[in-house]
Write a structure and sequence with these properties.
CATH class of the largest domain: Alpha Beta
Keywords: Membrane, Transmembrane, Transmembrane helix
Number of helices: 18
Pfam family, one: DUF2417
Number of strands: 10
Shape: elongated
Protein name: Mitochondrial integral membrane protein-like protein
Low-confidence stretches: 1-15, 24-31, 42-51, 539-547
CATH topology of the largest domain: Rossmann fold
CATH architecture of the largest domain: 3-Layer(aba) Sandwich
InterPro entries: AB_hydrolase_fold, DUF2417
Length: about 550
């Protein structure tokens, strides 16, 4: 029974305690709440009944992308990838056509290799961005450490620094910075992932799904491959640093507006016969550097007294010479030789002795120095109608592919470690073909052989003086195995009207001087050419044609 009436609740009334609770709840419902953020824990938020307020660990909402710092780093990583791809494209083009002020005296393949490695690191970082792993941090740290060593070598070794130029330095520094960025990114994403798991699930997640494990495995395999690549590149740079200490006979002369330098040397002294200056022999090697066998034959002829003086040089990209800007034709090589002779203070008369593809350069040089060339000797030379053989697209692609992997230096490293190959072997000897500069020079010859170079040598043939003494020495093995080669060798005997001799040396390969019979025949014919050159006078009619 209720007491008095006033003690009893009226209709629609509630006890005072219940009313106070209702008023308090009403006030709380109207109080402004703090806006939840990425730092707000779920337990602090209104939650449905019978719920602990946490999300399932497999919920897609549990992601490090919830943090603006992580999203910003991903955007920057994509931006760096775009910059690297643009730089990669520019370097790829520069192999074939050198942009202004971007010419590298080296091969250009190292710059390209560092940029490829940079893009690889960034692609792994972007694709596997949300799945950081300790294995990735370890492998990326190893990559960064070796890249720092590469940067130190390039900056510390003067010869390599000169060859790589600012393009190579920028490429390796950028690769170092990107490797550090990838390590930093992985650390930040790992932190963000842990933070979001604690905030949204109540604890950091230690397990991974099968998909995540496969992603980590694939990313680790890729970065391990990158580790192997950078180790090989570092070893190759070490080999290059070692080779840069090899001394050379002669000097390096800047040409083409000081864009690159070529190696030039002379042996012997100027002599006179009956008051007339004797011609100096000018050697032009074929498919290999002059110092490899070809110059040795000339030195023997000098010691035997057959000749009194000879000079030789290395075409751009060969031995101690720098690479020239692309494109580079045989006529450009002839002009580089002319400039080198002028800067060295060398004057004719000259007897040009050339072999293989080098005969193309000598013939062009002869047509541009008619007053100074008093004799031509061609040893199994390349004919202009056969230039399509070295200018074929298939050969060009193989040279390009070989150049791309040349920074790995697998053959050079293997030869140095297991076969005892020396600096001489790698710079101008039997292993010179493994050098990136040499490959770039071969690629340059390939690109314009059947176009620019062919046009230049065809014009040179029309200009060539008809009374210049000419000696042709051919390989019997090459002629017997290639009928077209034999026909073109016969055609070379018609370059001038003053053919001294044409010898087809039995059992001699394309490098005729590699056999005793070949060396003997070449030295004999060179002696006859020297005597014939002393009688050469440029006819007045031909002098008038020059002007």
């Amino acid at each position: 029974m209720w007491g008095s009436k006033k003690d009893r609740p009226q209709n629609g009334d509630a006890p005072e305690d219940d009313q106070a609770s209702a008023r308090s709840a009403s006030r709380r419902s109207y109080e402004p709440r703090e806006e939840p953020s990425e730092r707000t824990r779920l337990l602090d938020r209104p939650r449905p009944p019978n719920s602990d307020g946490y999300l399932d660990p497999d919920d897609p909402a549990v992601s490090p992308y919830n943090l603006w710092s992580v999203r910003f780093m991903r955007w920057l990583t994509v931006f760096f990838l775009m910059i690297s791809c643009l730089w990669w494209t520019l370097l790829l083009i520069s192999i074939f056509v050198s942009p202004p002020r971007m010419h590298s005296r080296g091969s250009g393949f190292f710059d390209f290799a560092y940029t490829c490695l940079t893009i690889g690191n960034l692609l792994v970082a972007v694709i596997f961005f949300s799945g950081p792993a300790k294995a990735l941090r370890i492998t990326t740290t190893i990559i960064g450490a070796f890249l720092i060593i590469d940067m130190i070598i390039i900056l510390a070794v003067g010869r390599i620094r000169l060859e790589e130029g600012w393009v190579g330095i920028v490429s390796v520094v950028w690769a170092v910075l990107i490797s550090i960025w990838c390590i930093l990114t992985d650390r930040v994403v790992a932190w963000g992932k842990r933070e979001e798991e604690e905030r949204l699930t109540g604890r950091p997640e230690t397990r991974r799904t099968l998909k995540e494990w496969l992603a980590v495995l694939l990313a680790t395999v890729l970065t391990v491959i990158f580790v192997i690549i950078v180790i090989l590149m570092t070893g190759t740079l070490g080999i290059r640093a070692r080779d840069s200490t090899l001394g050379m006979y002669g000097e390096r002369i800047l040409v083409d507006g000081d864009k690159y330098a070529v190696h030039f040397a002379c042996v012997g002294n100027i002599s006179y016969t009956k008051g007339k200056k004797d011609a100096t022999i000018m050697l032009e090697a074929g498919e290999e550097p002059s110092e490899y066998d070809f110059e040795h034959w000339a030195y023997n002829a000098y010691q035997n007294g057959t000749i009194s003086r000879y000079c030789y040089w290395d075409r751009p990209g060969y031995a101690w010479s720098d690479n020239a800007p692309s494109p580079h034709s045989a006529g450009m090589s002839a002009d580089a030789l002319s400039e080198a002779l002028a800067r060295a203070g060398e004057e004719g008369p000259w007897i040009l002795v050339s072999a293989g593809t080098g005969s193309i350069v000598s013939r062009i040089f002869s047509s541009r120095h008619l007053k100074e060339v008093t004799g031509i000797m061609i040893v199994d030379g390349m004919h202009e109608d056969l230039l399509h053989r070295i200018g074929s697209p298939g050969r060009g692609f193989l040279l390009w592919a070989w150049g791309i992997i040349s920074p790995l230096g697998m053959e050079r490293l293997g030869g140095a470690i297991f076969k005892g190959r020396t600096r001489e072997d790698r710079v101008y000897g039997r292993n010179a073909y493994q050098n990136g500069k040499f490959i770039k020079a071969q690629l340059q010859e390939n690109l314009v052989a059947d176009s620019l170079s062919k046009n230049e040598v065809v014009s040179a043939r029309n200009i060539q003086s008809s009374n210049t003494p000419l000696v042709i020495v051919s390989s019997a093995i090459k002629c017997r195995s290639d009928n077209e080669w034999e026909r073109k060798q016969r055609d070379l005997t018609k370059l001038t009207d003053n053919l001294v001799s044409w010898d087809v040396v039995n059992k001699a390969p394309h490098q005729v001087w590699q056999t005793l019979e070949g060396r003997t025949a070449m030295e004999k014919r060179l002696g006859e050419l020297v005597k014939a050159a002393r009688k050469v006078e440029i006819p007045t009619v031909e002098k008038e044609k020059l002007f």
